[in-house]
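Incident log, structure service

09:12 report received: a user says their structure output differs between two submissions of the same chain.
09:20 pulled the input from the user's history:
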Amino acid sequence: MIQKIKGTMDILPEETPLWRHIEKVMREEAEKYGYGEIRTPTFENTELFVRGVGDTTDVVQKEMYTFADRDEGRSISLRPEGTASVVRALIENGKCSDPMPLKYYYIMSCFRHEKPQAGRSREFVQFGTEMFGSHSPASDATAIALANSVLKRLGLTNVKLHVNSIGCKECRPAYRSALVEYYNSHIDTLCDTCKTRLDKNPLRLLDCKNPDCHALAEGAPKTVDHLCEGCSSNFEMLKSALTAMNIDYVVDSSIVRGLDYYTGTVFEFIAEGIGAQSTVCGGGRYDGLVSSLGGPELPGIGFGMGITRLILAMRELGLDNIEGEKPLIYIAALGERAMIKGLEITERLRREGKFAECDVVGRSLKAQMKYANKKGAKYTLIIGDSEVEAGKAQLRDMESGEQSEVSLDIFTI
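09:34 re-ran on a clean worker, output below:
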């Protein structure tokens, strides 16, 4: 038997109403905030992610699905995240000269070769937003408010906002020096991965999940203590804006995010009670990304939200019981002529915009009534060959059990 690839999942019809509910909330909230939907290719030139995400990140070094293009031999990768692709699209399509800010959202599949576990799969669906063209902390607050609005509308009361600032190119060098000095004094305690990161990307050491490294990170210099005047002022304004918008938060110096393009504001929404993969939304500012990919100096702020982790958080609160639409009417047909008439009526009702079902298996009446009840049909129309001859049939209210005679020729509901 051929089975699905490890780390992927099947989403069955009984599960899709929950997914569609979540996606509907995401689309409606994003559009309420003025974001337009963008769709980008599933795979891109590998160089886009190496330059955009960062060649020292785990995503690029260990997790991308990369292959050679059969026709041209160039290296291609399935997208591991959405931001780099959106930036490439706005540059390539000449959107950088449009009125600012530019606001995009997407719901897309992304791919990372990670160890599968609850809330983490190798193909995952992500809701993301990107805003370009504003240096103001007001844009950071707007992005966070949108994420908060989605989570609150989904009923997730067990989620907390954690915010931090990791500085800009002006203040990052001084902080980097302090960080390297601190970790060099504890070099023997570091895991092998962090020893490699120390020279190339010391900020990533703060995000290491190794217990010894995690304990070290708690005593490391804090980014907020090394901010330049501009970054410090922006962070204070962001906090004031969040307070004014009635969005609760905690300042968390351990929030640095795992991708190289982040600068300034970073944030995560963290859910309680869903296990190790508790971050349901993460994002931040990336003011140098557009220019690094060949575009103009254009600041950006965005976030990503994994739907699988949202479902885990919703399940913890009993919010995952979303049912699909139920038939207005089920037509139980007995006999060949009755089945033809049933199909005729069913199609007419569907063209009127109604959810109608008709037996196409040839079950007994008892089996059809049981099936209609299981599907949750509000009414059942019972037709036999004799009813077709008489032009009349019985309409049963499935909740009350009451039946009434109706004319087949003019029947509607």
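09:41 both user submissions now match this output. Likely a transient worker issue. Closing.
09:42 reviewer note: The chain is about 35% helix and 20% strand. The first helix runs from residue 16 to 32.
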